[in-house]
Amino acid sequence: MDFKAVLFALIEKFQKHNIRYALIGGFAMGLWGMGRTTVDIDFLVHKDDMNKVDRIMNELDYECKYRTENVSQYVSPLRVFGEVDFLHAFREATLSMLQRAEEKTVFEKLSLRVLCPEDLIGLKLQSIKNSPERKATEMDDILFLVQTYKDRMDWSLIEGYVKILDMEEIYRDLLEKR
Fold it and tell me: 120 vs 39, 56, 77, 93, CA distance in Å?
């Protein structure tokens, strides 16, 4: 997948159409300093903007392969453009995540919105809750963020996610390892 080409195309269109978005997933982790392999691009997008996103993805020749109330997955027939996944923001927690997203620069000149470390941790906790077999991988990412950004973290946000997901044991472990 040509991440640079895909991101430049998408972000230009997101900005043109006032799409409320933030980068999430492996590529976002890379922007926060944890280089890791990823095969797709993931975004959190305001659910009310998903009709516009669908038109943009169709214009770029992506096909929607999967859609639920919570997520949409688009795949290009051209391998170079790969897969782009969207988590739909419509609950209070995810809408707040979009508001807190921070501007980052990639490829020296592309400015885009990225979830803050606390909110990435929240999504990773949700991933563990939904798929316990992912715990080891997600915890590696969480621990990296905690140890790297502990001095700037809003621990009340993380505590809120932990309470929503009933994962207090993980929170206690994080507090010990920070």
Answer: 18, 25, 29, 12
Return all residues near 122 (Cβ < 8 A) that are at least 6 apart. Answer: 93, 97, 157, 158, 160, 161
Question: Nearest-5° angle of CA 110, CA 95, CA 125?
Answer: 90
Chain CA centroid to CA 137, Å: 15
What type of residue sits at position 80?
V
Q: What is the model's pTM? A: 0.93
Query: Sheet containing 63-67: which strands, arranged edge to edge?
Result: 63-67, 71-75, 83-89, 40-46, 21-24, 110-114, 102-106
Give the SS3 label for residue 126: helix
Question: How does pLDDT run along the chain (178 residues), one tens digit per residue?
Answer: 999 999 999 999 999 999 999 999 999 999 999 877 778 999 999 999 999 999 999 999 999 999 999 999 999 999 889 999 999 999 999 999 999 999 999 999 999 999 999 999 999 999 999 999 999 999 999 999 999 998 899 999 999 999 999 999 898 888 888 7
In degrees rounded to 5, what are phi and psi of residue 70? -100, -30
